Amino acid sequence: xxxxxxxxxxRARDVFRIVVESYLDTGLPVGSxxxxxxxxxxxxxxxxxxxxxxxxxxxxLAAPHTSAGRMPTEQGLRLFVxxxxxxxEPSQEERAAIEKQLExxxxxxxxxxxxxxxxxGLSACAGIVMVPQREPVLRQMNFVRLxxxxxxxxxxxNDSSIENRVLQIDRRxxxxxxxxAGNFITARLSGRxxxxxxxxxxxxxxxxxxxxxxxxxxxxxxxxxxxxRDGSNRPVLIVRGQANLLDNDAVADLERVRRLLDELEAxxxxxxxxxxxxxxxxxxxxxxxxxxxxxxxxxxxxAAPYRDGEGRVVGVVGVIGPTRLNYARIVPxxxxxxxxxxxxxx
Length: 346
What we know:
3-stranded antiparallel sheet; single chain; 12 helices; alpha+beta
């Protein structure tokens, strides 16, 4: 199938570029008279209208009912972003504003939140970051009987956090088994992450070094496995700058903004969207209905992965905003933020 890009001659590309860049700058449909004033295009308004009609038939431009001008479709924006956009590197001031948030010591989550806030302010979008997934480090685990088929597992982390989980059991366990299982974890597995504790337990059981009977070892194994699996499937998401989505341009399209704010409440869904950008070498762009999550509001997401000291992708940072974004400026800004976070974690 022929790409729309290959069907554009130089004249059509010039007209298309002007329409897209003007729309991204003003948010308004672009008319033939505006294009005719450009020094790039030496065509009459009538000829420009013919070119714009051709671009519309290719699905790259659309004409709002209330205007004789044209604006890019999502397909047109994708064509522009992938094949025509010339990115501009972040300014020294923008770089300094981002790096300033990474200075000093403190929890990584605080630095991530501050950096996301800075990115939100610079891009005039909502900033988002997926925090590195960290398993709790065990301090203590206790088991409490709820019924003949349920046991409550209480995990205390080294950071004094407390979490509860209900385990379904298929065999009767005595109070002494529950105490034995809790004592074993506290004495032998304390100070390890959940996955490390589970691996240690499996190794000790396989070599028959674990001082547990069958029922107690099964209880410990299932409790640790439940937490380890649950933690890896529960990314932490920080969103900053939602108020940026309510700018003057949004007043005329409050329904779209309302939908976007509703979508921002779906933290788990956004985290899954960001997760799809983990394998990208640099910033990845999702435009409007290309992603099911934001198909209703017609919003765009620009996201890039960042890595730890061992080169592993541990999170994703980016922005969410309307499809009318300054992609040429924001894409390299998101890339720079991801690179700065990578340097911080080394």
